[in-house]
Structure of PLP-dependent aminotransferase family protein:
Amino acid sequence: MKYRFSKSLDGFSSSAVREILKLTQGSSIISFAGGLPAEEFFPLDAVSEAFKRVIEGGKSALQYGLTEGYKPLRESLCRRMASKNMHVTPDEMMLTTGSQQAIDLLTRVYIDEGDIILVERPTYLAALQVFQAKGAKIYSVESDNDGMILEDLQAKIAQHNPKLVYVIPTFSNPAGRVWSLERRQGLLKICRAAEVLILEDDPYGEIQFKEGENYPSIFSLAGKAEGNGVVYTSTFSKTVAPAFRTGWVIADQEIIRQMARFKQSADLHSSTIDQQTLYHLLEHFDLDAHIALIREHYGERMRFMTNLLSELNWPGLKWEEPKGGMFIWVELPEQIKAEDLLKIAVQEGVAFVPGSTFYAENPQYNTMRLNYTHTDRETTILGMQKLAKAMESYLQNA
Amino acid sequence: MKYRFSKSLDGFSSSAVREILKLTQGSSIISFAGGLPAEEFFPLDAVSEAFKRVIEGGKSALQYGLTEGYKPLRESLCRRMASKNMHVTPDEMMLTTGSQQAIDLLTRVYIDEGDIILVERPTYLAALQVFQAKGAKIYSVESDNDGMILEDLQAKIAQHNPKLVYVIPTFSNPAGRVWSLERRQGLLKICRAAEVLILEDDPYGEIQFKEGENYPSIFSLAGKAEGNGVVYTSTFSKTVAPAFRTGWVIADQEIIRQMARFKQSADLHSSTIDQQTLYHLLEHFDLDAHIALIREHYGERMRFMTNLLSELNWPGLKWEEPKGGMFIWVELPEQIKAEDLLKIAVQEGVAFVPGSTFYAENPQYNTMRLNYTHTDRETTILGMQKLAKAMESYLQNA
């Protein structure tokens, strides 16, 4: 039978890069491509303990739950958010299947085909995919190491009348950037004046390398949730473990209520076993001490990789040392196309993500994203050697 | 700030019934309204054992997984499906957050605004919501206790040129019906001739009360997945426990591949902790013996409730004894509006779902759905007494 698929599928650009990276899954190729946390730091014992408590709670733990998510976990997360100056009630929060689902649900309740969304340049690929699948028009705002250039933001808002601005202001994916306070405040002010909703995606905010620095979320700058014009999402994937697929979103109750209606028809609710496990984990495990441990190790791995990058001595290689998060954004000499380099690199046995995939438009081809959290020292050395060989071979054939 | 929500929200009819039922949540009201399994039969020890095995597998159990779902569970489910004459490979299967997500994802990849979907009369409310949110036009096909009336199906296909037919052929929600073999074969033949995709929703198929009877799935009648024109979905929610939110969908690989692309942007993947737990449960726990136990108890509860219904002696009360599943579909005397009865019933302390909510169009107001799986004998007696009192009060005020 001939299938008559939705035209939404046209929104998904098939990507040669994705096809190449698929080949590396499950193979022996060293991957700097994924955004995987280091498994060796997963708090397996604490998870096991927490699950025991769920089971001790009896059989009702296995029943259907609320679409908005397990309430004790929401209450616990509200306290955690309050410690970061985000003051919300459990009714202003919903638990989701990772923060990815928060992006998807907000898009479903807020965006119609042809609506305009502004994003950073570059930005998170899987958010672009969500927006594209919904038929949104996406424009990128010129951005530097301090965040979006406010003049360009203002100009693009005036020009396009967007409904939504999507940002990852703290240790962004892919660029590893952190926005300055001035840019955060500026974004908020400009968007409020134009009634443009802000979606603040914060999966990496906890992975901070410099002690003492403070990067207040845009949500916290916007004050109480009601009418504040900011939707904030985060996740346990980077601080506890991804397999729980548990994220949360906070926003004006009016927005949460609409997202919950869509979530109900999307999947009724996310796994409450996982939500209950995470609740007990938060109650009995020092998550902040654990995050401190991750910060230390990831910071080390980042410095280890940037040192190796320096040793490469490729002329024209540029990067900014990340202040947190999971990625180094590398600019290659202008004549080098990272997608072509990737093909050779995979033959050598190492993978990365060409930066071009992270652009809504006019990709910059001489860029790449390197993940430093998932590989140990030895593997990182080996991978960088392979990368060096790939580059040599690229330059010889150029 | 004034929010500019998507017009998709218009698709969600706000329902007075849903508002009333919300009031009953967490209250002391006896509920025949939900579709909840009986908690006392949840295999808590087996779940605990299975989770231990996940933990024993080490920290990699907590890492990101495949969008399509944990492969060993897919393999295990393929064997289980094969025992029911549904022969698929793991590539023709995807794990979802409950079968609800399978309905949503198929709708996202297959349906555009204005496309036509045919459904049973009555049918599952939360499927109607998914279709409505996508802007589909829904028409119901006249149905009786043997399933859709094939003449009406054929006429409506000719008239509307639908893309999809959605059916729950085995122990349907809400009507508790089971389609005859003739109707199953007829549906398949007619839909194939017209190139209409069939979505077969089978959450209740395992909850069968009559031994020896055999209700082959439409998918099994359609032969191998490739090109068979049937998408089949089921779930662990009714046989193991809902909190895992783990369902699966099988179909032509072309369809699974497109659904996986949408799932990736919807939530990357569902909880792999839950999927791994269910895998170990399937390997070390006699699920079929457990299902036999559920069948026995649910059958008892069904007969207990239908006996109480008989004792009500309401003139004009009609129902068909379900051969499986979780619901009794009750037809009240024609002058009685179940939505009005519900208001009084809730005051008396008992709830049910008025049948009118389960219709795509032209609801039949003198119907109600009763769930018999969640309440024990004592509670069921009490609830039926309250229901009797509500009816008395209704008739007095009529």
